[in-house]
């Protein structure tokens, strides 16, 4: 597995949608500004410097929001080619990935500047109006026809579980979508405000993931282009004994969340709250300075520390306690499963013991919101 550091550059927190499951608060979106081009390029230079210092093999750089395309086509035309030039020629590989809702009329021209496009789809909580979903679907198809690599992430909400794994996967697959990821819902921002309507019990999420695995492994061998995570990546984690961040907090492997004005946190979720605890500003100092600061390193150590209930768990090596945010909503006396989704891990381990093996040796991509 490549040693990957995840940099998430929120070029704006504002968005042209108000998804009720979103980890960003609507108040944060409303108050957000937009990143200047020179600030973006300074951050890119900082990434190159930081990667050289830490000796990681790969930089995964997410240009994200909010909705990044709200900065307009000229921002990407002026800054992305230069960013790529500044990242080339170093002793690390990199990917420039945009995370977008694909509702911009210039989406094809913007997307050509990236190595990969990640988008999201959820029933009801993302697309309350059918016309929005139709516009999104048309843009997905247009990007595919243009030869642009598109992957889809779905947050596992109550509405997703109610629709069912088979229905969702068949819906995507029938549209030619073959890179599919299901992310575990994290209650923060607007998602926290609407938690009672959206947040499923942990055991229901695990059962949904098992259904996803059933669908995927029944089709995987017949279609070499089909990738569905976390079943595939979880199988790889069990095979290698090395956890992957489909469940594991990405802070452990290495991540940094940079806001539009340079303020920085360790994880994506942290910056979505109105009371976000920032750990420095990479535009006032540098990425390396913030990453090596006592405040930042303290948060990394906190993420690496196992929850007390997990220290004797036989699956801790795979999940590393999962997302720390979800532990705030876990009752070990009442809940049938845990924030590490042990039931899902056990199911995947049983499949592995039965002879099922991962199809690749290098993890393909990280989680996106």
TrEMBL record:
GO molecular function: catalytic activity; iron-sulfur cluster binding; metal ion binding
Domain Radical SAM core: 1-221
Keywords tagged on the record: Iron, Iron-sulfur, Metal-binding, S-adenosyl-L-methionine
Requisite cofactors: [4Fe-4S] cluster
UniProt key word Iron-sulfur: yes
One Pfam family from the record: SPASM
UniProt protein name: Radical SAM additional 4Fe4S-binding SPASM domain-containing protein
């Amino acid at each position: 597995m490549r040693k990957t550091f995840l940099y998430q550059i929120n070029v704006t927190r504002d968005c042209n949608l108000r998804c009720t499951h979103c980890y960003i608060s609507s108040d944060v979106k409303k108050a957000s500004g937009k990143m200047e081009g020179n600030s973006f390029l300074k951050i890119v230079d900082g990434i190159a410097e930081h990667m050289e210092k830490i000796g990681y093999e790969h930089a995964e750089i997410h240009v994200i929001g909010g909705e990044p395309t709200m900065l307009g086509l000229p921002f990407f035309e002026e800054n992305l080619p230069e960013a790529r030039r500044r990242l080339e020629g170093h002793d690390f590989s990199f990917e420039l990935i945009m995370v977008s809702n694909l509702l911009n009329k210039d989406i094809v021209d913007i997307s050509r500047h990236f190595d990969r496009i990640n988008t999201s789809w959820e029933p009801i909580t993302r697309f309350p109006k059918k016309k929005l979903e139709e516009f999104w679907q048309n843009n997905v198809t247009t990007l595919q026809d243009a030869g642009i690599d598109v992957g889809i992430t779905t947050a596992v909400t109550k509405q997703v579980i109610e629709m069912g794994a088979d229905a969702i996967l068949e819906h995507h697959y029938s549209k030619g979508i073959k890179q599919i990821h299901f992310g575990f819902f994290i209650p923060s921002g607007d998602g926290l405000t609407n938690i009672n309507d959206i947040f499923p019990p942990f055991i229901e999420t695990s059962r949904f993931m098992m259904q996803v695995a059933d669908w995927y492994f029944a089709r995987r061998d017949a279609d070499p282009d089909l990738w569905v995570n976390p079943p595939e990546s979880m199988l790889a984690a069990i095979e290698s004994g090395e956890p992957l961040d489909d469940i594991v907090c990405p802070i452990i492997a290495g991540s940094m969340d940079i806001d539009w004005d340079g303020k920085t946190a360790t994880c994506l979720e942290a910056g979505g709250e109105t009371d976000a605890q920032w750990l420095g500003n990479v535009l006032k100092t540098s990425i390396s300075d913030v990453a090596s600061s006592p405040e930042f390193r303290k948060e990394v150590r906190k993420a690496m520390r196992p929850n007390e209930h997990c220290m004797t768990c036989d699956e801790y090596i795979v999940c590393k306690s999962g997302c720390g945010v979800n532990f705030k909503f876990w009752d070990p006396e009442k809940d049938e499963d845990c924030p590490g989704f042990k039931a899902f891990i056990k199911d995947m381990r049983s499949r592995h013991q039965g002879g099922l093996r991962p199809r690749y040796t290098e993890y393909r991509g990280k989680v996106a919101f």
